[in-house]
Amino acid sequence: MKTPTRLKIAALGCGSRTKIYAQIAALMRDLYEFVAIADPVPERRQAIKQLTGRSDIHEYASAEDFLAEPKQADLVIIATQDHQHREQAIAAMERGYDLLLEKPIATSLEDVLAVERAAIELGRRVVVCHVLRYAPFYKKVKELIESGALGNVVSIQATEGVGTFHQAHSFVRGHWAREEESSPMILAKACHDLDILYWLANSRSRKVSSFAGVAFFKPENAPSGATDNCMNGCPHVGACAFDAHRYLSSEQKWLQYIMPNLAASGQTPGETLAWIKQSPWGRCVYKCQNTAVDHQVTLLEFENNITATFTMTAFAKGRTIEIYGSKACLRGGEFYRETFGCDFVITQHDGSGEERVKVDFEDVGYAGHGGGDYGLMQTLHSVMTSPREQAGEYLISHSTESHRMAFAAHESRMRGGELVFIHPKSEPSKPARIAAVVL
Question: pTM of the prediction?
Answer without folding.
Answer: 0.91
